[in-house]
Amino acid sequence: xxxxxxxxxxxxxxxxxxxxxxxxxxxxxxxxxxxxxxxxxxxxxxxxxxxxxxxxxxxxxxxxxxxxxxxxxxxxxxxxxxxxxxxxxxxxxxxxxxxxxxxxxxxxxxxxxxxxxxxxxxxxxxxxxxxxxxxxxxxxxxxxxxxxxxxxxxxxxxxxxxxxxxxxxxxxxxxxxxxxxxxxxxxxxxxxxxxxxxxxxxxxxxxxxxxxxxxxxxxxxxxxxxxxxxxxxxxxxxxxxxxxxxxxxxxxxxxxxxxxxxxxxxxxxxxxxxx
Length: 275
Prior knowledge:
The structure is a single chain. The chain is of the alpha+beta class. The protein is 34% helix and 26% strand. The chain is built from 7 helices and 10 strands. A 10-stranded mixed β-sheet has the order 1-2-3-10-4-9-8-7-6-5, with helices on both faces.
């Protein structure tokens, strides 16, 4: 369980089927991510995501890659000379660079800026995993920020400057780097003994951009599963603030909500650029 203060509330997040911890102190609002069953007495809704079983052998995982995805991974590694690295999420300099790219990415997609307090809380509790894919000159093309416990890794944010690249060759280069970083993380998590890799959402609607993101994810195999997102408001202050926030949201269109974003209560399927 992580806790942090955001705007007017003291918030907590509980992931998977873990339970809240009393040592975290009083909170106004608890968000439960990716539960196998709804929380009794909490407001719940179903959430679909794509899950890869990491207990399979590497050969089995590789056999589930689509041909196009496997080719782009090999090309990123062998011809593009992309370098995938793990970053120290406790290093404020790493978070600064991640935040800079994320905020530029978010501005292009009309998304909120990074919640730095939330990311620092995730890093402090040891569940934030940040990795990057760099070109041969050492320039970061894409970051991945994943929530990881001893059993499962879930994609949170994957900012890149893909949309700002004017030439299709550069965008394709960045897209291959993104696939290679995803595959590198899958193999790394398997080696660490994790059981599942979760893409952080699956779109069930008809939005063309979201369906193209589904297509990116499906290139790695896996199974679509239904889980639950739950929220439990514990204080009167929490109820008042969240009610006011929802009224404000109803007054404006909300497009391309980032995956597992706790700022507006329930999350929606991932909407990062992954072509």
